[in-house]
């Protein structure tokens, strides 16, 4: 297997990051004046909630290694990336996730890692965070609906987390599960999907160095509408694979059935690799609308990550394996 290398791009090439920093400091000064642990609704944050938010935002203020992995394409404005979303638990309109973001309860949060691992466990989110080194990565995000963005994520490789739990030799797939909370998540009262939202990767895809668990974006803690407190980001696959608000990761021997495959296997495949040569049954995938731009862009094979990931699919017919 060829060795994977990040493209090396000078630090100076892209630096909107100082801008996020300044903005964050500004926001912090503002909130320091209000009662420290009060939420807008007058709810009090639990101690554990305060622990993970405070320690994460402190870490985000420090210098994080950063990698530009979107060919220096312009970042999508933060306001677009947080107001035009797919997060069906909060509603199906693009504006719903921002409007109902406060309905996603992220405090406290825990993450379970189980199945084919020698060291299963359920950890408080702050304990997951404290084990990992964070970095910033700029990736393209391409939705199956033919729109795209360029987003600066903050997170850590999924491989780092999985290795700590010692996958067994039988582990061939990794399944992810989102939060199930129909009392608060209005979308879960409708049956568009079989809840909780589930996704899965083959183990080699999950261990690939580009596969990220993201806990922030644009230099800040992950906004609820983007999948707080922790979500998957797989930049060479259609966006629906990048499952939000993950509560459980299960390693399996058999290939799991993800929510979209269960809903419509003709339209949504297990692999869901971005492929401009394979159209969706109802529309072309050859081009995409970059949010914030006029006109259309050509969609790139594997969303522009072919040099890094094409070898994972060597010998597979990509017209057949959706
Ligand atoms: N739990 C959950 N994860 C999800 C979704 C969802 O509805 N629920 N939508 C997916 C889709 S279709 C896309 S395109 C991306 C969108 O991520 P963003 O809103 O952060 O841009 O999230 C993915 N992850
Ligand atoms: Mo999507």
Automatic annotation (TrEMBL):
It comes from the Bacteria. GO terms for molecular function: metal ion binding; molybdopterin cofactor binding; oxidoreductase activity, acting on a sulfur group of donors, quinone or similar compound as acceptor. It is an enzyme of class 1 (oxidoreductase). It catalyses: L-methionyl-[protein] + a quinone + H2O = L-methionyl-(R)-S-oxide-[protein] + a quinol; L-methionyl-[protein] + a quinone + H2O = L-methionyl-(S)-S-oxide-[protein] + a quinol. Its cofactor is Mo-molybdopterin. Keywords: Metal-binding, Molybdenum, Oxidoreductase, Signal. Mo-molybdopterin binds at residues 85, 88-89, 143, 178, 226, 231, 242-244. GO terms for biological process: protein repair. Residues 106-260 form the Oxidoreductase molybdopterin-binding domain. Binds 1 Mo-molybdopterin (Mo-MPT) cofactor per subunit. The keyword ATP-binding does not apply. Predicted to be exported by the Tat system. The position of the signal peptide cleavage has not been experimentally proven. PROSITE patterns: TAT. Its EC number is 1.8.5.-. Belongs to the MsrP family. NCBIfam families: PRK05363.1. PANTHER family: PROTEIN-METHIONINE-SULFOXIDE REDUCTASE (PTHR43032), PROTEIN-METHIONINE-SULFOXIDE REDUCTASE CATALYTIC SUBUNIT MSRP (PTHR43032:SF3). Part of the MsrPQ system that repairs oxidized periplasmic proteins containing methionine sulfoxide residues (Met-O), using respiratory chain electrons. Thus protects these proteins from oxidative-stress damage caused by reactive species of oxygen and chlorine generated by the host defense mechanisms. MsrPQ is essential for the maintenance of envelope integrity under bleach stress, rescuing a wide series of structurally unrelated periplasmic proteins from methionine oxidation. HAMAP family: MsrP (MF_01206). Heterodimer of a catalytic subunit (MsrP) and a heme-binding subunit (MsrQ). This is Protein-methionine-sulfoxide reductase catalytic subunit MsrP. It comes from Halomonas fontilapidosi.
